[in-house]
Amino acid sequence: MNTTLTSTKRIACVVGNPVRHSLSPAIHNAAFAAANTDAVYVALEIDDDSLSSTIATLRTVGFVGASVTMPHKESALALCDESSDTARILGSVNTLIPLEGGRLRGESTDGAGCVGALRQAGSDPRGRRCVVVGAGATARACVVGLAQAGAEWIGVLNRTPERAVSAAALAPGIAHVATADDIDNCDVIVHTTPAGMGANVDRAFDVSRLDARHTVLDAVYQPLETVLLAAARASGARCIDGLWMLVHQAVEQQRLWTGNVPDPDVMRHAAELELARRREMRRE
Known about the structure:
This protein is an alpha/beta fold. Helices cover 38% and strands 18% of the residues. A six-stranded mixed beta sheet has the order 2-1-3-5-6-4. Helix 8 (227-234) links the parallel strand 11 and strand 12.
């Protein structure tokens, strides 16, 4: 793919700090190339004091769109001229969409990424009982996304009950504070904490409760096969790694920016190549 800047090429970007590790440039540039879109996606590592001026500059350059990552998601919402219901519910944005007259619309696609990954794996959450493990920003987006996708019941399982209450309140009547016993009675588990990567995987819930009834999505994508997913796979559960969630939220961003719905397999392949390149560089 050609990512060389030219006089005609439009810019898209991710803003955050840090963003040097981001896979988004590889993912979005693959989508632009597949659609023959004359655009390039770059990473802009900016601090809090530079966010407002950076977004002001983007308004003036005819940019394609922007992704927003930590720690700027909440601050960026306040800089938008309008925002989606989802963004307002979450109090944050991860996507900036340019409108006419230099105006900006804020959106959050993290929940769509969760739902898209589940659907691609054959586990549409509509009518399903789901448990979201964790109560941070990713978990909150997943709660809202699952509710909007028609989940029958959503449980939020978190070590701090107060945070679980706050996350469940985002989808009143559908989301509730869960207990470990709810794992036995659910269809889908979305795990959003770092615990799935290491020996403390049982901290959130007893993985021995998993079996072939379950679909387990771990939002972590480095490593792709977390300790949690390895245990879930051994139990017979359907497993989805976090890279699919990252890809599908980017698919939704592309749709919002360009109207195109890119092939998620193309975007994932680009991400895998980038991960392999980084592993090779570490070995050198």
